[in-house]
Write a structure and sequence with these properties.
The complex is a heterodimer of chains A (60) and B (471). Chain A has 60 residues and is an all-alpha fold. Chain A contains 3 helices and no strands. The radius of gyration of chain A is 24 Å and the shape is elongated. Chain B is built from 17 helices and no strands. Chain B is globular, with a radius of gyration of 22 Å. Classes of the chains: A mainly alpha (60), B mainly alpha (471).
């Protein structure tokens, strides 16, 4: 078996390993946290806070 | 303006709209630079040289600089709009706020397809590179598939685990790949005593005339294709108003230098007939220089540039898909954020099999053409977008992190160059262009007549801006 054939098998093995790690973590995460938490991300958070601070400062 | 307590202990400190888990703001300007340049630099290592095949060495230089003007316009305009609309999704989010939902849906799809196809093309290239190394070492018939799959799975895992590590990885390998081009130029340059460059003997007139120059525009895009991807980091940079314009504009300057040096060295070492068909032109240039060290360095540079590009593409396509899911333009399930790694993990997972299917089952030129055409549609949008943005919210009406100069000249120049490039693409890939436009029209009808009913129409506009002028 040449080095390159060994490299091919290693690449298949590592690919499977990375895939497995992702899938296990995915199921673990989805079963541990509620959808309400996982999908609570809202666009524009920082911008709203920045505007709010400017408003507060302006009022003072 | 928001009317709730942003210091509430019931919130996690991220903001006033109820986010319990959001993307993490950890990136700086260097990461933005790495994201943009990392996606693009592979175009210097391979692909751009087909412009030489279309019209000769001078045609490639003209295409290089005209495409440079096109992308400088894109970078300046994106810097202004994204520093203001600083959210994941980049141009998709810009389109949503400035033009409207149907435009946003299309732009979102352009982004996802452009980056996913480019990721697949990069993975195919990694397989090809390793096959080349195997042949050079005396091993014939390498099975490229495990390396293609490994590249996609490893980078997907890296992206899944967190954006800081992902883009720091990109920063390191992109810097090495860029340095390799600079070193190649310095070592071969007559400025430092070398005499390997033969411009006087190798340069010819335009072999196919000005039509060749026009045809070369298609591949001239490769020098810069993807720099607009910096906008996808908008929700994860610590200071959007500073980091996005800084990283994007530094990125386009880097690429203009890299593109010109690449052209200069390559056309001085290889005749245009050979260069125009080379699979790995910079690596071939290093071989022609006669230096083994340079050959190894440029070989590593080629591999790193390809990896950085695929890495950035996964980052960008997943952010665009995530943003569309979060707004219900796609199933809301995709709008989830990983509570520990703070990445759009479901979008990353969903796009893995799509990239694998294209990487393992589609020919490279078709995959890349689909990517270029999607990108080109996106650039056309950018020019229309900035005109509407400035008209609806003139300077002074909202805060901007960057104000691009000479408006509306860059928008008009960009639109003109896009029109020329459409024609150039039509000359070589007319069927694909028509098929792709047909595809986008079909999905637009689906979105308009079916999907839009699920969109929370008021919730999708999040920027605390005044009412647009004239409304």
């Amino acid at each position: 078996m040449t080095m390159w054939i060994l490299a091919e098998y290693t690449a298949w093995g590592l690919s499977g390993l990375f895939g497995l790690i992702i899938v296990i973590d995915w199921f673990r995460t989805d079963s541990t946290y509620s959808e309400d938490v996982l999908m609570s991300s809202q666009e524009g958070e920082l911008e709203a806070m920045t505007e709010e601070h400017i408003l507060e400062r302006a009022e003072k | 303006m928001t009317d709730f307590d942003i210091t509430s202990p019931n919130r996690d400190g991220m903001g006033p709209q109820g986010t319990k888990v959001g993307l993490l703001r950890v990136l700086g300007p260097a990461h933005v630079w790495a994201l943009g340049v990392g996606i693009v630099l592979v175009g210097e290592y391979m692909g751009w040289n087909f412009a030489v095949g279309k019209g000769g060495a001078y045609a490639a230089l003209i295409a290089c600089w005209f495409a440079g003007v096109l992308y400088t316009c894109v970078a300046m305009i994106d810097s202004e709009v994204t520093s203001t609309v600083a959210a994941a999704g980049g141009q998709y989010t810009q389109a949503k706020h400035v033009v409207g939902p149907l435009m946003a849906f299309n732009v979102g799809l352009y982004l996802v397809f452009a980056y996913t196809m480019l990721e697949a093309a990069n993975a195919i290239t990694i397989g090809f590179l390793l096959d080349t190394v195997a042949v050079m070492s005396g091993h014939e018939g390498l099975d490229q598939r495990p390396f293609i799959v490994l590249a996609i799975m490893f980078l997907a895992w890296l992206n899944y685990r967190g954006v800081l590590a992902t883009l720091t990885f990109s920063l390191v390998i992109t810097a090495i790949a860029f340095s390799a081009i600079i070193i190649l130029f310095l070592v071969t340059s007559p400025l430092f005593g070398s005499d390997v460059l033969r411009h006087d003997a190798l340069m010819t007139d335009l072999p196919y005339g000005w039509l060749g120059v026009l045809a070369a525009m298609h591949f001239g895009l490769w020098f810069y294709l993807g720099i607009e991807g910096t906008t996808q980091a908008a929700e994860e940079v610590r200071s959007p108003a500073r980091a996005l314009p800084f990283g994007t504009l530094a990125g386009i300057m880097t690429l203009l230098i890299a593109a010109t040096l690449t052209w200069y060295v390559s056309v001085g070492l290889m005749p245009w007939e050979y260069l125009g068909q080379s699979g790995v032109p910079l690596f071939d240039a290093a071989r022609m220089s006669g230096s083994t060290s340079l050959m190894v360095l440029l070989g590593i540079g080629t591999l790193f540039a390809t990896l950085a590009s695929a890495n950035g593409c996964i980052n960008d396509s997943s952010r665009a898909w995530f943003a569309m899911g979060r707004d219900n333009y796609l199933p809301a399930w995709f709008g989830a954020v990983h509570p520990v790694y703070r990445t759009p993990y479901r979008a990353i997972i969903f796009l893995i099999p799509i990239a694998l299917i294209f990487a393992l089952g589609a020919p490279l030129d078709q995959v890349i053409t689909f990517s270029i055409l999607s990108g080109l549609l996106g650039y056309t949008f950018v020019s229309i977008n900035i005109i509407m943005f400035r008209r609806k919210w003139p300077l002074g009406s909202i805060k901007r992190g960057f104000e691009h100069p000479f408006h509306p000249v860059p928008a008009i120049v960009l639109l003109c160059l896009c029109s020329i490039t459409y024609f150039a693409v039509f000359l070589g890939y007319g069927t694909q262009l028509v098929a792709m436009i047909g595809f986008y029209i079909t999905v637009s009808l689906w979105f308009h007549f079916w999907r839009y009913r699920f969109v929370k129409r008021a919730a999708q506009f999040t920027m605390p801006w005044p009412r647009p002028k004239g409304y």
